[in-house]
């Protein structure tokens, strides 16, 4: 027998699952409205430059599924750059396996990223974005390894990788 409580519970869990799966559109990055970046494009230009999945992450603050990015298992020497504007962001020397399913780093390159508070979903986190184009990269947490104790948990879709010669 279907009760009102069962219907409400089903609808609620369905909405949470849809949100977690990235089915609801997300707002444009807060930085886009309040900050001016060196690289700027119209929404139509960003959509043309990026894949739909990259656009959802970089321009709408989406999150890719954990363990879905090949960059999570990338261990060659190289540089991880912003997929939106090409700015070098992280060296492979600071990459580590956090076990979270997203590429993780303990430190960005100098003057590569910006941060701001993210209060979505009823929690306080520190959002990380490309300092040149404002593209959403992921979040930084204080549970990383030495020497910084930080974990820059990045979306692989927001990054490109260039291998450095050995």
CATH fold assignment: Metal Binding Protein, Guanine Nucleotide Exchange Factor, Chain A
Major sheet:
6 strands, antiparallel
Q: What portion of residues is helical?
A: 10-25%
Gyration radius (Cα, Å) is 17 Å
At CATH level 2, the architecture is Beta Complex
Strand percentage lies at 15-25%
Content-based structural category: alpha+beta
Please provide a brief summary of the model.
By secondary structure, the protein is α+β, with helices and mostly antiparallel strands.
Q: How are the secondary structure elements laid out?
A:
Layout: H1 4-20, H2 30-34, H3 43-49, H4 52-58, E1 78-82, E2 88-91, E3 95-96, E4 104-105, E5 113-118, E6 125-130, E7 136-141, E8 151-154, E9 159-163
Antiparallel strand pairs: 1-2, 1-9, 3-4, 4-8, 5-6, 6-7, 7-8
3D structure, described in words:
The protein is α+β, with helices and mostly antiparallel strands. The protein has one domain: Metal Binding Protein, Guanine Nucleotide Exchange Factor, Chain A, CATH 2.170.150. 22% of the residues lie in helices and 24% in strands. The protein is built from 4 helices and 9 strands; from the N terminus they run H-H-H-H-E-E-E-E-E-E-E-E-E. The strands form 2 sheets. It has a 6-stranded antiparallel sheet, with no helix packed on it. A 3-stranded antiparallel sheet has the order 2-1-9, with no helix packed on it. Strand 3 (95-96) and strand 4 (104-105) form a beta hairpin.
Index terms:
166 residues; alpha+beta; Metal Binding Protein, Guanine Nucleotide Exchange Factor, Chain A; three-stranded antiparallel sheet; 4 helices; globular
């Amino acid at each position: 027998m279907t009760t009102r409580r069962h219907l409400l519970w089903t609808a609620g869990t369905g909405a949470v699952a849809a949100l977690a799966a990235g089915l609801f559109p997300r707002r444009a990055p807060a930085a886009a409205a309040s900050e001016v970046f060196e690289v700027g494009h119209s929404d139509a230009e960003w959509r043309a430059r990026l894949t739909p999945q990259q656009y959802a992450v970089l321009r709408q603050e989406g999150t890719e599924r954990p363990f879905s990015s090949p960059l999570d298992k990338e261990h060659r020497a190289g540089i991880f750059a912003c997929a939106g504007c090409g700015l070098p962001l992280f060296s492979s020397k600071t990459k580590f396996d956090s076990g979270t399913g997203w590429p993780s780093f303990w430190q960005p390159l100098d003057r590569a990223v910006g941060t701001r508070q993210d209060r979505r979903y009823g929690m306080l986190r520190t959002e990380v974005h490309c300092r040149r184009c404002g593209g959403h990269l992921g979040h930084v947490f204080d549970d990383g390894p030495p020497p910084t104790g930080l974990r820059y948990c990045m979306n692989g879709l927001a990054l490109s990788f260039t291998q450095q010669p050995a």
